Amino acid sequence: MDLAPLSFHASLEEQWDEEKDPEEIETVLKVAPPAYHQYLDVLSKVKAEKLPSHRAYDHHIKLEGNVEKGFIRPSSSSTRASVLFVKKKHGGLHLCVDYRKPNAATRKNRYPVPPMSQLLTIFNSSTIFSKIDLRGAYNLLRIKEGDENLTAFRAKYGSYEYLVMPFGLTNAPASFHNLVNDIFADFLDVFVVIYLDDIMVFSSSEEEHVKHVTSVLQRLRENHLFAKASKCVFHASSVEYLGYVVSSEGLKMDSSNVQEILNWPQPRNIKALQSFLGFANFYQYSPFIFNEEALSQFQILKEAFITAPILAHFNFSLTTIVETDASDYALGAVLSQVNDSGKYPIAFDSCKLLPAELKYEIHDKELLGIVLALKRWRALLISLSNPFEVLADHSSLQCFMSSKVLTHFQARWAEYLSECHFIITYLPGRLATLPDSLSCQDEM
Fold it and tell me: How many structural domains compose the chain?
């Protein structure tokens, strides 16, 4: 295969025609090595936004029950969902369709990712990696003919239905994963690993890697799939993937999973010490004496929290629990699993609330904590075959997924949460020691 890059002008004329975006092309040329400039069309935003053709993988919406049983019947009005428009960060409006009702009646189709131990074997002899992020992934797949009416929604000037797979349908991730896995079937576990819209290419040499990445880009072109250059990583010695850092040395936990503990500030008063002691499950009412010896033990204790076997790898077959908590100024979350020995932590996370978020009611702060936790660990939670449990310190959140009235940002959150299969359980704050400590430490 001729890997000589096309010239900048040839790329504009031959690949992008009249649909060129100079700023976008500049980004592509900056991010992608010259050997891949001949695939500018694969990295085109304009081409990715065209209506795709029908495929055998068109998304089919299977509702529980069927017409023959009389449980459902065709109706153009009963399936119309409500919508809200939410402002995007960089301007413009995002359409949020409330698909909670059809999602609740849809048979769930989960598509698990390979266990980390298997990936470790796959990457064993690799020294160079590239990660390709697909653009507008779900919109690259059509809705199965005949199911379009199930995506219907009502707007101010009429009702509409999707021709492409929208974000917010419960089985959308499984449908898309099925598509890309079949397209790259002969590459999988040889030099490619795929999770949803993230394609990992791995090789043992630079020369071999160019051939592998070129093959992937060519396969994307042949199947009218597109990548986002600004989110792609080419020819790296290590990359972040599914919450792990992949390198020639193997897999290791992403440091951000445990960074909240490593960055825990030195206690300056009794309250700060009590917060940390609460997290460590020690006595909270010890005298505040923080000498050099105490400082040394404080550092050792922080290291102990992130040392195996306390922090373990995620196991897709175990019961999974996400605990969240919100304080006045921050959010905290803990990802845990349960085995025969009991519950043990997998990862921790916390963050300070933004100025606008500080004004939220406590109900919305607690809900935001759930959203951020599910975003943080999405790659793991979305692939569980059984529902996981979310423990939150607000009883009304148990009814959120069935609430009829939503604010604009609640609608956006509901759309995101629809990807995961979970149950919200009320856990009083006095019992939520771990996430409460994480949310409080960000206030210090």
Answer: 2
